[in-house]
Design goal:
4 helices; four-stranded mixed beta sheet; rod-shaped
Length: about 160
């Protein structure tokens, strides 16, 4: 039996620990499960707001595009890209100075300048039509430079 003493001694400590753990009346505390992280907020997609078509203006007796006209034509091109199925009529207008024939030709050159610029930006030429009204449809009815500058324009009409 002397051979069993060291064996019993080596087993007695783990056995006591086992018995103490099993016979304990205290409830076993389980670590709480961490709640899932909050869901990432959904990205709110703001609707794309595209400014409506707007007129471009010209200098007296010119059909060359001004810097402000180029910027407005870029905005109009964005509108046309968003509304690709829509057709657009470009109306060329002039002030009252000059003959009817001259103003009709100038209005046509102005409308074509805008159309060519838009086509170069990627607009479909089949969706663009031009017409010249010359001096026949003034926006402003005065007979001064302030009125005339408002009448030298290309007007865009979505169809």
């Amino acid at each position: 039996m002397s051979n069993y003493k060291p064996l019993l001694r080596s087993l007695s400590i783990p056995a006591m620990l086992l018995l103490g753990a099993c016979c304990c009346q205290k409830p076993v505390v389980v670590a709480p499960v961490a709640p899932p992280p909050p869901a990432a907020p959904r990205a709110v997609v703001a609707p794309v707001v595209v400014p409506p078509l707007a007129d471009v203006f010209f200098d007296f007796d010119k059909s060359a595009l001004r810097t402000d006209a180029v910027e407005q034509l870029k905005t109009n091109a964005n509108w046309m890209q968003v509304n690709a199925s829509r057709k657009v009529l470009i109306e060329g207008h002039c002030d009252e100075r000059g003959t009817n024939e001259y103003n009709l030709a100038l209005g046509e050159r102005r409308a074509n300048a805008a159309k060519d610029f838009l086509v170069n930006l990627g607009a479909s030429s089949s969706n663009l039509k031009t017409v010249s009204f010359g001096e026949e449809r003034p926006f402003a009815t005065g007979h001064d430079e302030a009125s005339w500058s408002q009448n030298r324009r290309d007007h865009f009409v979505a169809e």
